[in-house]
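pls design
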């Protein structure tokens, strides 16, 4: 994220339908990944409410959109839009079942007076989870969810900034699953094969200099500890990262690297069963 002041966030409540109809079910089956674990909806909503309160506690004006049972993945509002300054690019998610998620976010942004652009090519796909902005340039995952035609819309909407496509493939869903802005000039990178490959591509294409902050991959004996903990949220001198019990090694790394940042722990724990991360569940601008 840029060093500009962020003042607002959009989140969306969790529908019952996410338990059985999230696109993660189809994605995992298609790419030979383990079946989705059942979601405890009561716990998921409690965690989501605490996550939302963390954003408020850090000074953001948070708009909470109601759940829509016809849109199982609607809590993942980050995928619907990319906002920089007063311009917003409404995306075109890969799955047709997710494309109406954009509508509710569009209404909020129009009400705030933002300049609205839209991906309107039927062959283009773009999801916000594949996009991060450093304040100087964009890095975008060229993934199963975002394609080159979608990335071109980012270039057209924000011609004042370089846009770089970073190759990504399953099992990784989005670029932010392996690399995220952790502070100005610092990118948190997962020390996995795809994280290492993404960092190499970032270094090759970047027009500005960045430092990698490596987060560990899980141990074989503890596959869910320190998993995808590079997925962090940075804004206004605040860093939101995983809970210590989810990523003890990662939290130690963040604390050592950023003694002067205001660090907060948060979780979307149950939603991780459908491939969610911290960044997925809010649109911050």
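designed seq:
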């Amino acid at each position: 994220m840029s060093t500009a002041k962020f003042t607002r966030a959009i989140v969306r409540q969790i529908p019952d339908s996410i338990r059985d109809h999230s696109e993660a079910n189809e994605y995992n089956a298609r790419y030979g990944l383990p079946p989705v674990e059942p979601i405890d909806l009561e716990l998921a909503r409690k965690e989501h409410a605490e996550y939302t309160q963390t954003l408020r506690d850090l000074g953001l004006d948070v708009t909470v959109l109601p759940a829509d049972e016809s849109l199982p993945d609607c809590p993942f509002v980050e995928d619907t839009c990319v906002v920089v300054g007063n311009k917003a690019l409404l995306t075109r998610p890969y799955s047709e079942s997710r494309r109406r998620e954009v509508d509710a976010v569009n209404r909020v942004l129009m009400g705030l007076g933002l300049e609205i652009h839209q991906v309107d090519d039927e062959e283009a796909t773009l999801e916000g989870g594949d996009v991060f902005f450093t304040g100087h340039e964009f890095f975008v995952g060229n993934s199963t969810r975002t394609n080159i035609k979608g990335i071109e819309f980012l270039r057209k909407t924000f011609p004042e900034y370089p846009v770089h496509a970073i190759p990504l493939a399953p099992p990784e869903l989005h670029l932010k699953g392996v690399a995220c802005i952790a502070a100005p000039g610092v990118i948190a990178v997962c020390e996995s094969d795809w994280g290492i490959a993404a960092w190499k591509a970032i270094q090759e294409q970047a027009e500005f200099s960045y430092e990698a902050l490596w987060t560990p991959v899980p141990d074989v004996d503890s596959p869910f500890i320190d998993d995808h903990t590079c997925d962090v949220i940075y804004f206004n001198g605040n860093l939101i990262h995983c809970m210590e019990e989810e990523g003890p090694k990662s939290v130690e790394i963040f604390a050592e690297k950023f003694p002067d940042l205001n660090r907060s722990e948060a979780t979307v724990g149950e939603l991780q069963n459908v491939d969610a991360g911290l960044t997925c569940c809010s649109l911050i601008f």
